[in-house]
From TrEMBL:
This is AbrB/MazE/SpoVT family DNA-binding domain-containing protein. The lineage of its organism: Archaea, Methanobacteriati, Methanobacteriota, Stenosarchaea group, Halobacteria. It holds the Pfam family MazE_antitoxin. Residues 1-10 have a biased composition (Basic and acidic residues). It comes from Halorutilus salinus. Residues 19-55 form the SpoVT-AbrB domain. InterPro entries: SpoVT-AbrB_dom (IPR007159), SpoVT-AbrB_sf (IPR037914).
Amino acid sequence: MSTGNTDKKVGSGAVSGNQASIPAEIREAAHIEDGDRIRWYWEDGELRVEVIRQRKNVLPDGFDGFESEGGSVDHDEVGLEPAGRIDTGD
């Protein structure tokens, strides 16, 4: 794993089932945050990992969703009841 400097980081983590923990010192050095993904590679007898960063702010400022082709949609039109209203079958 390359962190952009020559400091060697070594740590140990636990494996439980299909999950492996990443030591805090390694997470901090690699800037791994919640939501990031790890891609694992096994090649020529060596294990290598790649950090896939979580994309933030992927929608433009002011984005307020999409409108339907016929304009805005009332929730009742798509089968959802507004909060607080219950269908009693009357």
